[in-house]
Amino acid sequence: MPSRHQPVLMDPVLDALQPRRGGFFVDATVGGGGHAHAVLSASSDVRLLAIDRDAQALERARQRLEEFGDRVQFAHAPFSAIESLVEEAGLGPVAGILADFGVSSDQIDDRDRGFSFQQDGPLDMRMDRTLQKTSAAVLLANASEDEIEKWLRVYGEERFSRRVANAIIKQRRFGPLLRTSQLADLVARTIPGGRSGHNPATRTFQALRIAVNRELDEIDAFLHAAPRLLAPGGRLAVISFHSLEDRLAKHSFRNEARGGEFENLIPRGTVATQSEMRANPRSRSARLRALERSSVGDAN
């Protein structure tokens, strides 16, 4: 099916990457191909490496970007592998790199993927179901109470992490948690409701998704490798959707800028306008940061 995902912060992303100048670009999380399409459309001199660890998303991107022919290469891989993927592509120094750390609407709205507590489905949450063996259900079936509590506290910033972890362990005596509705109901029975419109299971689902996909480790590896791939004047742009992701990006860009080789282009980050938030509510938590390689050193 065509992608239903609406890319966020499109104009700020294009301002940050400046694809009109042409060159070799990387979309490290191509998803439905929205940002990639805009980058490729900016100039006929743009070539793009489209990466995604989700095979379904990559197929949607292939269909969306088919019109650009051999100007696009595709790679089914996590973005932590960007260094080797760029080397294999053999397209020269990188003019721009984009990574969107969020979960796409296509993933959230597909009940079979198990990312959402708003509809019943298998408790899965794997970004790459072809290579990843451990689903959220398997993770919860085998983890200790202390491990679950740590994921909830650190990755979900859940105030009631111990209470929820204990409830999950007790539930295992009666049978495994296999469905998203089971987990959402368990959390709702265990902790007080959140603020208006905020489901009490939100933080638990976020924490488990991060744990299943080792998302923070992936982001950390990506942020370490990506700046070194930029050509002089090349730019790296990242979009975060929660404080843990944004904190990693903020600290990484700040540290890179201290060395003098890079410039932190948006120190405070850019967020969606009110009009974009009204049109696309999922853009409300998005924040864009950008880094530019300013030296004339070795770009490899």
Helix content, binned percent: 40-55%
Largest sheet: 8 strands, mixed
What proportion of the residues form beta strands (DSSP E)? 15-25%
Structural class, please?
alpha/beta
Contiguous low-pLDDT stretches (5 residues minimum) are: none
Radius of gyration: 20 Å
Keywords:
DNA polymerase, domain 1; alpha/beta; single chain; 8-stranded mixed sheet; 16% strand; globular; Rossmann fold; 300 residues; 8 strands; 2 domains
Structure description:
The chain is an alpha/beta fold. The protein folds into two domains: 10-106 and 215-293, Rossmann fold; 111-213, Putative methyltransferase TM0872, insert domain (DNA polymerase, domain 1, Orthogonal Bundle), CATH 1.10.150.170. Helices cover 43% and strands 16% of the residues. It contains 13 helices and eight strands. Strands 1, 2, 3, 4, 5, 6, 7 and 8 form an eight-stranded mixed β-sheet that branches. α7 runs antiparallel to α8, α7 packs across α10 and α11 (215-229) packs parallel to α12.
